[in-house]
Specification:
With 365 residues, this protein is of the alpha+beta class. The chain folds into two domains: 114 residues, no CATH class; 174 residues, no CATH class. It has a five-stranded antiparallel sheet with strand order 6-3-5-4-7, sandwiched between helices.
């Protein structure tokens, strides 16, 4: 299927990511929760020829290119050189784009049950952060917070729908002279708007206490543990859009890592900038459906007509990085509208096929 001139005029963009094993597959776009899809038009849509060395992207910083596995001779030896492209440690680049996408999908689903959501903030005292910096056990603390919260929610009979983001507090980090990681967690805190909250602030403080104990951190002798933890956690009901609560933390403080690399407290830079529960992950994946590549191309070609007829809305996403390719978001509005668009695409495909066969028959006669 050829593309119109407006697509060719979009400028240089990326090729699809290279597959590591097996036959190449056509790239797809996902239908995300709340009937939204994001895609980036590519000049390669005109004649897609698959992946390979000769079609390597011109902007490698935006590509995810895999190297092929070792040869048989290398696999049998014991002196294979380490992969120089693998980072010394994860997390130094902040929150990855894939994480932002999954967080957005999670929040889109959780938005439907906003009145039952809790927004929990965890800010450890400076003494605890210093101890974690010395021992390098921040990952253990963060992991135990997630697991302990999920355990308590399940014990209370609630689904463990949990998603969290880590932020480096810029002002506090500058004032204390060490990175100050800060947790922001959204979870379902009650069964329905008519029920009470299952986890009290004291019980959430106990989650922090258990995580600190796992990481080997305890309150100073001169400060009572209860008083020490009282300032570490803060929980409140989500009253506005849950996206509004977490969106700013998905960018704020997640890229301010360069100044702390090589610092004595570098271990406080998170290795994992976000997390979610298995229940939430499964729920999100149930609402993400792949859409046919040919359908996406057809939709992009006819986006102005579709928008005029009220079947969908299109907008160009504002991206902070100027190197990012042009990216569209489609709001499909309603399921029946999407079904009608699919039907229009099928009819258009059939008409094109019929017309092609008709022209061929006319030439033969």
């Amino acid at each position: 299927m050829g593309l119109s001139g407006d697509l060719r005029a979009l400028g240089a963009a990326l090729e699809p990511a290279e597959q590591q094993w097996g036959d190449p597959e056509l790239p797809q776009v996902a239908l995300c929760p709340r009937l939204r899809s994001c895609y980036s038009p590519r000049a390669s849509w005109v004649e897609w020829k698959g992946f390979g060395e000769d079609r390597r992207p011109s902007m490698p910083e935006w590509a995810r290119v895999w190297d092929y596995g070792p040869s048989a001779a290398e696999a049998l030896g014991l002196s294979i050189a380490p992969n120089s492209k693998r980072p010394a440690r994860y997390g130094l680049s902040g929150l990855p784009a894939a994480g932002r996408k999954q967080i957005s999908r999670s929040l889109a689903l959780l938005e439907e049950n906003r009145r039952c959501l809790s927004f929990w903030t965890v800010s450890l005292p400076r003494e605890a952060l210093i101890d974690l910096a010395r021992s390098g056990r921040w990952p253990e603390f963060q992991d135990r917070v997630r697991k302990e919260l999920i355990r308590r929610l399940r014990a209370a009979g609630l689904p463990a729908l949990v998603v969290g983001v880590v932020e480096l507090q810029p002002k506090r980090s500058h004032a204390t002279g060490i990175p100050c990681p800060h947790l922001h967690v959204v979870f379902q805190g009650r069964k329905s708007p008519g029920h009470g909250w299952v986890l009290s602030p004291a019980e959430l403080d106990a989650v922090i206490a258990a995580a600190l104990a796992t990481a080997g951190v305890r309150a100073p002798d001169e400060i009572a543990t209860e008083d020490w933890l009282a300032t570490a956690g803060n929980v409140q009901q989500v009253k506005r859009s849950v996206r509004a609560y977490l969106s700013k933390y998905m960018t704020k403080g997640s890229g301010d890592t360069c100044r702390w690399v090589g610092h004595s407290a570098e271990s406080l830079i998170p290795r994992q900038w976000w997390f979610w529960s298995m229940e939430l992950r499964g729920w999100v994946l149930e609402h993400v459906f792949p859409m046919a590549f040919e359908f996406l191309v057809w939709v992009h070609r006819h986006r102005e007509e579709l928008e005029e007829k009220g079947f969908a809305r299109f907008r160009i996403l504002p991206l902070s990085d100027p190197r990012a390719p042009l990216t569209y978001e489609v709001n499909w509005l309603r399921c029946e509208f999407l079904a009608q668009v699919v039907g229009m695409w099928q009819l258009d495909q059939w008409d094109e096929h019929w017309f092609g066969e008709y022209r061929l028959s006319q030439v033969e006669t």
